Amino acid sequence: MTAQPKLKPVAAFDPLAARKDFEILSRRVYGNPLAYLDNAASAQKPRPVLDAMYDFASGEYANVHRGVHYLSAVATERYEAARETVRHFLNAAHADEVVFTKGGTEAINLVSYSYLAPRIQSGDEIVLSVMEHHSNIVPWHFLRERQGAVLKWVDVNDDGSLNAETVDAAIGPKTKLVAIAHMSNVLGTIAPLKEIVSRAHAKGVPVLADGCQAAVHLPADVRDLDVDFYTFTGHKLYGPTGIGALYGKRALLKSMRPFNGGGEMIREVAREAISYSDPPARFEAGTPPIIEAVGLAAAIDYLGALDRVAVAAHEHDLLTYATEHVKELNWVHVIGEAKDKGAILSFETTGMHAHDVATILDREGVAVRAGHHCAQPLMERFGVASTTRASFGLYNTREEVDVFVAGLKKARSILG
Amino acid sequence: MEMDQGLRELYQEVILDHSRHPRRFGALEGATHTGEGYNPLCGDRVKIYLSLDAENRIKDIAFEGKGCAISQASASMMTDMLVGRSAGEAESLMGGFLHLVKGEDADGLAEEDRERLEVMGGISEFPMRVKCATLAWHTMKSALEGGSSAQTE
User: Can you give the pLDDT at residue A68?
Assistant: First the structure.
């Protein structure tokens, strides 16, 4: 350790101060300080999120939208206020364009079932990229398997970048939807989403963007993007598990059949007939994740109180610093070096399997992901079975990157 | 940097040697039984080839696949130990092995087998990695049973 602090706090954001909000970051793992570099899998939760959930559950909780009683009214207000927070976060025009789901996966499945399935004839096409997470692949495979839809795969370039032209070229007269990750969970690649949407719309094709990674790091302005569906999850956004959101343009949501059946999504139930609620209730059958919605809103507020441009600059600094250091190791092969990519570093290690590397890093207190990252078509594209992935969040530091790089060298000395 | 005891036991020289220079690696011509194993957690695959004689003894065995040091070493040691054994003996060896990697009593193992397999015992301290060690064994069992695929997750 040198006396000089290696971390250069960006003027408007101090990661060391932010770390104090995340109690878990001060714990040890196998006797070593935790260096949590698995943020793309799930992020840690700051105290204000946990407090908001605790305070709500211990002081204001009841079921929503049904009771006449005081607490039910308060809880309903909090739940709908959380929807408004998400609306603002996405810059959606209307709060009823925001559907709460249990996560990103459910949001995409909802679109697959309620929007696309009734519009698919055998031979119709769905355009998606090879860098999709399985959650933005499997719901479309269902339509291939069940209804004869054709999946049109769009390749990425060798550096991991994705061209809007390539997506455009895959859109034909039979294309019914373009489904694209706003940011790749493996490569960190940021898709030129606005241009993709504009090109797809020129051909009359709607676009779904999987924003699970992007919403954490980038502005997700659905009106600026003009995207038709946008999905994200709470737990990667420093919020709780069990909640995510689907944004859908009002006219599209209104045109869609329900997803799950149950309470809340129904207007009237008779013995021989039923009628459905309007969106978003139509897609929120059953008791929703109420406490989690309050937690998600708190997470969005937490991020909103930070200078997000400065946070992004800090994460970019960590990525650049880490990339420079691992590239000094001639047995490390970085996968995904698109320009302006997000703070995700995936790599292969010559002669060492990602799981062995991750096990050794773990014993140093460094949490990384090893495996196929639920993106097997992408692994196949790059001819690898698995990679090691370090992904950075707002609370990470250059010191943690140093520990990570030292751990890699140690892995090499053991396994190499 | 110091190496902790757990890692030292996990990545013993014998294991690293098996993973770097796996024995009986490759396809087996004229195999009577084959099995394919898959670990969906990491995407690792292994294929086991067995050739049984008329008495149901393993005349020859080989494996193919890509994976971590643990899965490769385990497959290599397994194939090395199974030659000449009957299908029944192979299964009971597997039973003992499974106990051993889970840190349980492996009394059922013959002394000599236990001594050879003991190097894999360190894995019991790494519960997330036990599946890496057992993949080849499950695959071997499914090959013997005439099934074609096994998976650990």
Answer: 87
- Residue of A110, A171, A256, A374 marked active site: A374
Q: For A220-251, how does the pLDDT look when each residue is reduced to its tens digit (9 = 90+)?
A: 999 999 999 999 999 999 999 999 999 999 99
C-beta of residue A200 within 8 angstroms of C-beta of residue A178: yes
Burial A375-414 (b: 16+ CB within 10 A, else e): bbbbbebbebbbbbbbbbbbbbbbebbbbbbebbebbbeb
φ, ψ of residue A263 in degrees (nearest 5): -70, 160
With CA atoms as reference, the chain B residue closest to A31 would be: B4
pLDDT tens-digit map of B97-109: 999 999 888 888 8
Name the class of domain B5-145: alpha beta
Residue B73, C-beta contacts closer than 8 angstroms, at least 6 positions apart: B14, B15, B16, B18, B19, B22, B120
Q: Is B146 on the interface with A (CB under 8 A)?
A: no
Q: A256 has which bridge partners?
A: none
Same CATH fold assignment for domains A15-33+307-415 and A50-304: no
Regarding pTM above 0.90, the answer is yes
Domain locations in chain A as residue ranges: 15-33+307-415, 50-304
Contact B11 A354 (CB under 8 A): no
Question: In the structure encoding, which two tokens stand for residue A127, read together?
Answer: 């355009």
Query: Rounded to an integer, what distance in angstroms lies between the CA atom of residue A260 and that of residue A310?
Result: 41
Instruction: Specify whether domain A15-33+307-415 bears CATH 3.90.1150.10.
Output: yes
Mean pLDDT of chain A: 95
Nearest to A355 by CA among B129, B17, B86: B129
Share of chain B above pLDDT 90, in %: 63
- A186-223: pLDDT as tens digits: 999 999 999 999 999 999 999 999 999 999 999 999 99
Which one of A355, A372, A415 has the shortest CB-CB distance to B16? A415
Paired tokens of A176? 């019914």
